[in-house]
Amino acid sequence: MTRVFNFSAGPAALPEPVLRQAAEEMLDWHGSGMSVMEMSHRGKEFIAIASEAEALLRQLLVVPANYKVLFMQGGAIAENAIVPMNLLRGRTGIDFIDTGEWSKKSIKEAKKYAKVNVAASGADTGYTAIPARETWQLDPGAAYVHICSNETIGGVQYHFTPDVGTVPLVADMSSDILSRPVDLSKFGLVYAGAQKNIGPAGLTIVIVREDLLGQPHPMLPSAFDYKTVAENESMYNTPPTYAIYIAGLVFRWLEQQGGLAAMETHNRAKAALLYDFLATTGFYEAPVAKDCRSWMNVPFKLKDEGLDAAFLKGAEAAGMVQLKGHRSVGGMRASIYNAMPLEGVRTLVAYMKDFEARHG
Ligand SMILES: *Cc1c(COP(=O)(O)O)cnc(C)c1O
Predict the structure, then answer these.
(1) Which fold has domain 17-256?
(2) What percent of the chain stands above pLDDT 70?
(3) How confident is the prediction for the chain on average, in pLDDT?
(4) Would residue 172 show up in a list of annotated catalytic residues for this protein?
(5) Homologous superfamily of 258-359 in CATH?
(6) Which pairing describes strands 284-285 and 297-302: parallel, antiparallel, or unpaired?
(7) Where in the chain is the domain with CATH 3.90.1150.10?
(8) Which of 22, 124, 309, 354 has the most CB atoms less than 10 A away?
(9) pLDDT tens string 272-320
(10) Choosing from 98, 172, 176, 225, which is the catalytic residue?
(11) Using CA positions, which residue lies closest to atom 10 of ligand 1?
(12) Radius of gyration of the chain (CA)
């Protein structure tokens, strides 16, 4: 068996010990005689798996007691509709900070339900920076302020939590949840698809302050009503059981690594290795402003695009896959989520140096 260094933006690499444990438990979970995939979601075994996953997640993220943790489906793109349908609560407007592709998708969807105010946009910098907080034109009557904490495609990330006063702050954290400690009490709601930094696709995590629940849009499907989902402990309908089980194993693994403070150190070190190298060469370029660079998704370009195909081919031959940048921006992108070991980034940087020496 040979495992590659997988730099995919998502679905992405998972910690190897988690995959090994899942393999061991595949046919018979803890003497139950069943795979987790075959269990009733209402049986005592699965209830134990789901409640342990929630408890571990609460512990890792230090989720305040007045917040609900919901295990849902539909991904972050579905949340682009589900969030406004739950959180407008009689108001008409939403403030958005537009920092790139994923912000734009959220804005487009929210426009079906609300008056959208783009309070600040990174468009004039080509989405290479987060607009400074002082420039945001917020509406004090907005239902909430929406940000994308890490733009997976453009590679810009917030390295601060914006103060937006009493209006709830909502964040799409799909690609950086659990990558570092975060003060959730500063947010009204955060959501994340699992397939970047948590586990298998199919699970969406929503963490929401309780007082924001209970005035849904009348057309909101019940399965997407946060209050209904919360009251039924994420079992109003059948949840993505196997994905929750794997997420639980990942949470346990994160705890064993030393929790989110240790993850921050690990992720900073990996990102620094790559960005520090990029700063030393004119052969490659990193487009994003220094203070907004993502620790999770590192976009870079070869100055000579004509070498892109050779770069990717050589990387693959050396056991590194999925380095091609998103089709909308081109170039390369190395996604280096929690599960990417330092060794993977070292191998990449060594390959980049070698490629430059041969083609520069
Ligand atoms: C991947 C991603 C999405 C889309 O998630 P789906 O699970 O495909 O709906 C949305 N926002 C961000 C920031 C992402 O990284």
Answers:
(1) Aspartate Aminotransferase; domain 2 (3.40.640)
(2) 100
(3) 97
(4) yes
(5) Aspartate Aminotransferase, domain 1 (3.90.1150.10)
(6) antiparallel
(7) 258-359
(8) 22
(9) 999 999 999 999 999 999 999 999 999 999 999 999 999 999 999 999 9
(10) 172
(11) 76
(12) 21
